[in-house]
Specification:
Elements lengths: L2 H11 L7 H13 L6 H11 L10 H8 L16 H19 L35 E3 L8 E3 H12 L3 E4 L6 H12 L9 H24 L14 H14 L4 E5 L5 H9 L3 H8 L18 E5 L6 E5 L9 H15 L8 E8 H6 L1 H9 L11 E6 L9 H4 L16 E5 L3 H18 L3 E6 L17 H9 L3 H11 L7 H15 L38 H11 L10 H14 L7 H14 L4 E5 L14 E2 L10 E2 L12 E5 L5 H13 L4 E5 L10 H8 L2 H5 L6 E5 L14 H6 L7 E3 L4 H13 L6 E5 L14 H5 L5 E2 L12 E5 L3 H12 L4 E6 L1 E3 L3 H9 L6 E9 L5 H10 L6 E7 L10 H15 L18
Helix pairs in contact: 2-4, 2-5, 5-6, 8-18, 8-19, 9-16, 12-23, 20-21, 20-22, 22-27, 23-24
Length: about 950
């Protein structure tokens, strides 16, 4: 494009202050950092802006852009300072530099298959700015380009193309922090995107590639047809990870937790973390762990070891992961946060999270976005994660980007947290190592997420039994012609005289010998190395019974002391009037003048555990206050003038040497937050870790975490976990979505004593339940269906004495005085419906029906329940009553437990809502009608009569 046509088009389209507004901002940022780096004409202009009324050195960018319209380039009368042709071209040169920083990736050589013609990007051509061949040897100022201050245009263009249009495509100009942008420019432009490697480093790099490729081919021939999800085509990820860990060790990292799906997992286990090949071969041959009731396939297995690094030993863990691709992301982050907490590593300098992703999964799985959203929040940040995308340019059988995502690049989602993204050609392993260094150093410097997008390909099908040519004949013609990254790099080193022509084959033979020996292939840390701050799980006995007695009561004197601390607020701290009343009531509860409500009992449980040395971590949406205005673990000063100030957390001030208490109002996520808390709990068994749903059914959004980790993690992988879920549950007419916590789903997952499902019906029960979770030598997930209306029900209150003397009761018997010999019916129930049944019995003046509460639905308390049946020797009927429809709630799971305890001639009946598609009625009137019918049915004369209160008249 000629000079005149460019200037005319610029005037017509206002490019410089429209689509190219970033250019002006870049110049202005240069000026703010160092005015001498800006051309004289622009320096004078920006100096003038600083003299405008009210201007400061940090003048906003928008006035700069608006005022640019008045400059000569916008078509106004030329100013004397820009009349010179060279000064005008100088501006274009600086814009060309900025264009490469923004758009150079579009012309970068990223695809090892080179299948597609690179798009034309006019902004990267000097001619776009009216610069001609005659201008290439003119000298210009380079502005903020990391180079000599003056260079010829030819040299500038060469530097830019080598840096931004070769094997690396860097995206970072969207970052708002100028210091971070300048840091990246300094690192990448100073070396022109090229890594200076020694001959020894290059030989080691070839060895790593040889190890990666040879292992895959060895397994492919030794175990024909077995699934392993080969890394072939992406082997460069092995030297990438090795270099990342070694570089991290040199930077002071002591632990790293890695999360990845199945692609390449076996290779990482053997060649990075140090799993012995003999162990892997045994798994291929069917040998399994007899201690695991289920076990899992080999490409889901985790592993940990201690490897040697230049900075000393590093403990490296590969997290266990199901086939749900990215679901491991938040689990890794939670595990890392727990390890950082143990080390008091608040910045994240000592424990590093690394996540490996597939390209389609990174773009397509919502949990990726949710985990990124956690990355800089106070309760979940881990000091930045290094993300590595193994970009094989295909999603299962789809290789067309139009079908795998709606964004230009699979990594565009990371821009939401302003993470820099380094795209790199996997066939240029030295460039891969350079961006690995950049990524790790950026993370350590700024404690932010960073992404490496390693573009490669998939040599075989989705698995080794798949035939990719069926759906991708075009792509796989290119792949089948590709010699492999190792072969290409080996040939380069031979041609450059770094290695002899026979060395590549010798390396393959040497690696195969090591494989066949079965020994460890990764240099281990010293044999006497012990991980600092490691946690021992040995004290948690696998043979421990859930019903082993444990003392959870707390002396009344201590409870009174905790109560005083819970209501103690700083001087001049202004409470909201409603909160002030709640604290006044709590003060009276501590003195024994009022019975305890749920909020007070729960806070006392936390206080006692903290004083006993158990940290407590509670997270969820609005859990600081409590969804139902009941917890108030965080108090807010109504007189505060800044949003950062004015919060007081009483549980952090219980005792001088108490354990840590954290209460976190989470982002509006269930899946990522629950995954995070699971990871945290599996790494810290000595902390009470709780996640609270706003309503119990909100956990639906985290069902993968519940199914694949919480319920089955121990059976599959031997992972113990004491995570506690608080799920508000109860039919109060709030509609289908806010009634049921879906008890039936958790009961369906119950087997092999894997989880605990409880429905406490009093504050004292909640107190003892939370303490029991930590005090016994037993770590199992705890699912608690917590109340809503009961939180302020006067009948659902507990005296202080029940905390000082009692314990958690899996079954609570009849609390009113009845003649046991005259009881003909036992009504069993759980939760809120007990109080409605109790009130109805009082109104009806019934004396021959006893009501018992089953507080623990699983593991079912057979002995306690049997004792309750025996207490009524003349009872001939057992009635189960629940609020939920018959196809939901506990009935289908619990009925065979109940039937087991029936005496000869005893009948079993039920009172419940009719089976329904939705959990509850959406109309309040219909809810009330159904609820009344359920209670009436529990007391009906004929227990054998079918009960379907509120049945859908249209049901088939």
């Amino acid at each position: 494009m000629g000079e005149r046509s460019y200037l005319e088009s610029m005037q017509d389209s206002s490019r410089l202050f429209g689509a190219n507004a970033g250019f002006i901002e870049g110049l202005y940022e240069d000026y703010l950092l160092d005015p001498s780096r800006v051309p004289e004409a622009w320096r004078g202009y920006f100096d003038g802006l600083q003299l405008t009324p009210g201007a400061t050195h940090e003048l906003a960018h928008s006035p700069v852009q608006r005022s640019f319209a008045a400059l000569p380039l916008a078509g106004n009368k030329p100013a004397v300072s820009l009349e010179a042709d060279h000064a005008r071209k100088q501006v274009f040169v600086l814009q060309l530099i900025n264009a490469h920083r923004f758009l150079g990736i579009r012309r970068a050589n990223l695809d090892p298959l080179a299948r597609h013609v690179k798009p034309e990007v006019p902004e990267l051509d000097p001619a776009f700015y009216g610069l001609s061949e005659a201008d290439l040897d003119l000298t210009f100022e380079t502005g903020s380009l990391v180079s000599a201050q003056r260079m010829t245009l030819r040299e500038i263009v060469g530097l830019l193309r080598q840096t931004y249009c070769s094997s690396i495509g860097a995206e970072y100009m969207y970052i708002s922090d100028m210091t971070q942008k300048r840091w990246i420019q300094q690192r990448i432009e100073s070396v022109r995107g090229q890594r200076a490697s020694t001959q020894e480093q290059r030989r080691e790099l070839l060895w790593q590639l040889t190890a990666a490729e040879t292992l895959e081919r060895y397994l492919h021939t030794k175990y024909v047809g077995q699934k392993r999800f080969s890394l072939e085509g992406g082997e460069t990820v092995i030297p990438l990870l090795n270099h990342l860990l070694q570089h991290a060790g040199a930077a002071g990292v002591k632990e790293s937790v890695i999360g990845m799906a199945h692609r390449g997992r076996l290779n990482v286990l053997v060649n990075i973390i140090g799993k012995q090949p003999s162990m892997l071969f045994a798994e291929f041959e069917g040998i399994h762990n007899d201690h695991l009731t289920s076990g899992d396939v080999k490409y889901h297995q985790g592993f940990s070891s201690d490897i040697a690094t230049p900075g000393g030993p590093m403990h490296v863990t590969l997290a266990f992961n199901p086939s749900h691709l990215e679901i491991v992301d938040p689990v890794v982050e939670g595990s890392v946060r727990a390890r950082q907490h143990r080390r008091a590593d608040h910045a994240g300098d000592q424990v590093l999270p690394i996540l490996l992703h597939g390209d389609s999964a990174f773009a397509g799985q919502g949990v990726v976005m949710e985990t990124l959203s956690l990355s800089q929040t106070r309760g979940y940040r881990t000091g930045g994660t290094v993300h590595v995308v193994i970009n094989n340019q295909i999603g299962f059988t789809t290789s067309d980007a139009r079908d795998t995502r709606s964004s230009t690049y699979c990594t565009d989602i990371a821009k939401m947290v302003e993470a820099p993204i380094f795209h790199v050609n996997g066939d240029d392993p030295e460039a891969v190592l350079l961006v690995t260094e950049l990524a790790l150093e950026f993370r350590m410097a700024f404690h932010k997420d960073v992404v490496i997008d390693m573009v490669c390909f998939r040599k075989l099908g989705h698995n080794e039994q798949d035939e990719p040519l069926v759906t991708q004949p075009f792509m796989y013609r290119y792949i089948n012609q590709h010699p492999g990254t190792r072969a290409r790099y080996a040939q380069t080193l031979v041609e450059q005289g770094v290695i002899a022509a026979t060395d590549p084959d010798t390396m393959i033979a040497d690696y195969r010998k090591l494989l066949e020996s079965g020994g460890k292939l990764v240099k281990a840390a010293d044999s006497d190395f012990r991980v600092e701050h490691a946690v021992s799980w040995r004290k948690f006995r696998l043979d421990a019974r859930w019903d082993e007695p444990v003392i959870t009561a707390v002396p009344a004197e201590k409870l009174r002391h905790y109560a005083e601390r819970l209501v103690n607020i700083p001087p001049r701290f202004k409470l909201h009037s409603r909160v002030e009343k709640i604290l006044a009531d709590r003060s009276a509860m501590g003195r024994g003048e009022l019975s305890l409500d749920w909020g007070m009992a729960e806070n006392l449980a936390y206080a006692s555990l903290l004083d006993d040395g158990y940290p407590v971590r509670l997270s969820g949406q609005d859990c600081g206050r409590g969804t139902f205005f009941h917890r108030h673990a965080i108090l807010h000063d109504q007189n505060r003038t800044e949003w950062k100030l004015g919060a007081h957390i009483p549980l952090q001030h219980i005792a001088p040497k108490q354990a840590d208490f954290a209460v976190i109002d989470s982002i509006l996520s269930e899946e990522a937050v629950l995954g995070f808390e699971y990871g945290y709990a599996t790494a810290d068994p000595d902390s009470l870790v709780l996640w609270e749903a706003q309503f119990g059914d909100f956990a639906n959004g985290a069902q993968v975490v519940i199914d694949q980790f919480i319920a089955s993690g121990e059976a599959k992988w031997g992972r113990l976990c004491g995570l506690t879920l608080l799920l508000p549950h109860g039919y109060e007419g709030q509609g289908a979505e806010h009634s049921s916590g879906r008890i039936e789903r958790y009961l369906q997952l119950c087997a092999e004593y894997n989880i605990q499902v409880v429905v406490p019906s009093s504050p004292a029960q909640m107190f003892h339940l939370l303490r029991r979770q930590m005090l016994r030598p037993y770590r199992k997930p705890l699912i608690v269906f917590t109340p809503k209306s009961l939180l302020r029900n006067k009948d659902a209150a507990s005296p202080l004495s029940e905390l000082a003397e009692g314990r958690f009761q899996p079954v609570i018997g009849e609390r009113e005085t009845l003649d046991a010999t005259k009881v003909k019916r036992i009504i069993a129930c759980s939760g809120k419906v007990y109080y409605e049944l109790l009130n109805a019995r009082r109104v009806k003046e019934i004396a021959d029906m006893a009501i018992i509460r089953i507080e623990q639905l699983y593991p079912f308390p057979h002995e306690d329940f049997s004792a309750q049946i025996a207490a009524y020797p003349n009872a001939t009927e057992l009635m189960w009553c629940q609020e939920e429809p018959g196809n939901q709630g506990a009935w289908h799971r619990i009925q065979h437990y109940l039937a087991r305890h029936l005496r000869s001639g005893m009948q079993l009946g039920y009172a419940l809502r009719a089976s329904a598609a939705a959990p509850a009625a959406g109309y309040l009137a219909l809810h009330n009608e159904q609820q009344k019918a359920v209670i009436e049915a529990a007391f009906r004369d004929d227990i054998t009569k079918r009960n379907n209160p509120g049945a859908n008249r249209h049901a088939s």
